[in-house]
Amino acid sequence: MSLNDAITLPTRSGIALDVRPAREDDAEALSQFFEHVTDDDRRFRFFAAADRVSPQQIAPIVKADHYRTESWLGFSDGGEIIASGVLAFDDQGDTAEVAISVRADHKGKGVGWAMLDFLGKQAEKRGCKRVIAIESRENSAAIEVERDKGFIPEPFFGDPTLVLLSKSYG
């Protein structure tokens, strides 16, 4: 699927977000994208503090196996990556964990909302019964978006610094 074949998602701010599956040849552009994500958002996404996202962290995003993982990129009308979203399914395909990053200059414009809706629909199409997000309790912006989208928070057992948010489908 090329960018021309992307699915266009509207956002609440009027941005037309073109979404397509990530490909291996997106690795360099994705690395550059993560340089434009806030330090906190990089830390929240990868649960590690680093100035840069390593090639080892990029590899699973661009090499999704389409069985256990699916990965999508959201592009601006100028063709720049402004969002990244991943679904990681359990062995049965009943539960999928979602992770989304949005470029700093596009936060607050509905890009994360649109990606979360899109990923939830993709999980539901695959017969997934529950989508979860594991968030740092410090990541109030993501928790607020997920709660607004119907995700229910619950404790993350074993780590009081994290919260598990879940939404049932099907």
Structure description:
This protein is an alpha+beta fold. The protein contains 5 helices and 8 strands, in the order ββαααβββαβαββ. It has helices at 27-35, 39-46, 55-62, 111-125, 140-148; strands at residues 7-10, 16-21, 69-75, 81-89, 95-102, 130-136, 152-155, 162-168. The chain has an 8-stranded mixed beta sheet with strand order 1-2-3-4-5-6-8-7, sandwiched between helices. 31% of the residues are buried. The model has no long low-confidence stretch (mean pLDDT 91).
Please outline what is shown here:
This protein is α+β, with helices and mostly antiparallel strands. It is built from five helices and eight strands, in the order ββαααβββαβαββ.
Order of strands in the sheet with most strands: 1-2-3-4-5-6-8-7
Number of domains: 1
Measured between the Cα atoms of the first and last residue, the distance is 27 Å
Q: Quickly name the level 1 CATH class.
A: Alpha Beta
The CATH topology name reads Aminopeptidase
Ranges where pLDDT stays below 50 over 5 or more residues in a row are none
Bulk shape: globular
Please trace the helix and strand order, writing H or E for each element. EEHHHEEEHEHEE
CATH architecture: 3-Layer(aba) Sandwich
- Report mean pLDDT, rounded to a whole number: 91
Helix content: 25-40%
β-strand number: 8
Number of helices: 5
Annotation keywords:
170 residues, alpha+beta, Aminopeptidase, eight-stranded mixed β-sheet, 8 strands, 31% strand, globular
Task: Explain the layout of strands and helices.
Blueprint (H helix, E strand, L loop, with lengths): L6 E4 L5 E6 L5 H9 L3 H8 L8 H8 L6 E7 L5 E9 L5 E8 L8 H15 L4 E7 L3 H9 L3 E4 L6 E7 L2
Parallel strand pairs: 5-6
Antiparallel strand pairs: 1-2, 2-3, 3-4, 4-5, 6-8, 7-8
